[in-house]
Amino acid sequence: xxxxxxxxxxxxxxxxxxxxxxxxxxxxxxxxxxxxxxxxxxxxxxxxxxxxxxxxxxxxxxxxxxxxxxxxxxxxxxxxxxxxxxxxxxxxxxxxxxxxxxxxxxxxxxxxxxxxxxxxxxxxxxxxxxxxxxxxxxxxxxxxxxxxxxxxxxxxxxxxxxxxxxxxxxxxxxxxxxxxxxxxxxxxxxxxxxxxxxxxxxxxxxxxxxxxxxxxxxxxxxxxxxxxxxxxxxxxxxxxxxxxxxxxxxxxxxxxxxxxxxxxxxxxxxxxxxxxxxxxxxxxxxxxxxxxxxxxxxxxxxxxxxxxxxxxxxxxxxxxxxxxxxxxxxxxxxxxxxxxxxxxxxxxxxxxxxxxxxxxxxxxxxxxxxxxxxxxxxxxxxxxxxxxxxxxxxxxxxxxxxxxxxxxxxxxxxxxxxxxxxxxxxx
Length: 427
Hints:
It is a single chain. This protein has 427 residues and is α+β, with helices and mostly antiparallel strands. Helices cover 44% and strands 17% of the residues. A six-stranded mixed sheet has the order 11-12-10-9-7-13, with helices on one face. The chain has a five-stranded antiparallel sheet with strand order 2-1-5-4-3, with helices on both faces. A hairpin with a 3-residue loop joins strand 11 (382-388) and strand 12. Helix 10 (255-265) crosses helix 11 (292-309) and helix 11 packs antiparallel against helix 13 (368-378).
């Protein structure tokens, strides 16, 4: 197949030959015919060297017709899980479901300053400055303890997008961090001040020379030093547990045997309170997957709380059985004064105490239930605390059961002694 360029050249040469032949027939002059032939060939070559074959016109792009309807703003906003509003001319034109749930369904078409009642928010919403300012922190929207961050974006058509971001969790975490540092400092400073004061007193020849005074002061110093030691040990323990919180324990633990072992370890107490400790263990209870040392710490803390806050002479019962859900339930119940409902959600907070003076007098560090909670979370279990004023408190732990590997133990009902370890309300 010839290229269009070559075809055009051959066509021109044929035309020239025809003209030369006609010229020679009409005027049989070879010289004139040659002049015509050479001139024609030159013209054809010049045209071929400087010209290009006419390019075919490029096809015009066919624009795809978009038959899809325009984006529905309300549907778009409903896909956002945080409160979002679109404001037009100072009024709420659109609001998704989270925004209506937070501010009320009546906000549609309402002045945005009435929808979001906050002085700083009203000032920013009425400001037409196209440059957005920093986010505004709002307190009081929804519930009193909720905190929101308001971000405002200007659109090209004059409308404004109001985005509310819930910062309650971040503020709560920051508050817990600040409280933890303050409480830990206080818990360490108080016994340290006592020790320093007694050391200064004993350095005086008169006070230090009295054997009775010296013995009394040394006992107080020893008790305060032991309190500091327990606090530091609990802080280290809590730090280790949190560092391992994402590593699920995989060792098989016989929880029934562990309960009996803990009872044996807590056999002797000076106040004979351990005589009230009772264990009721279902012989069919399966093993659990867990960290044996940490589960022992859980049992010590729960029984210690019950022994501290139960009334003397009343039983402290440890129940161990398989729950109807298939999990293993460990429950420790006492018969004490109980805990008011408003305190129950905060019992596992670090250093939270229902009765701070009583807890310190009983030797608690304020971290016992916080340690229990973190251990149970690491074991992918659940901690529940229920209480009735005047009747007592029950702390229940649910742990996943391990696959069956052996024959169940016979039911055990034993009485043994116990020693107080941690206090209720995180010690």
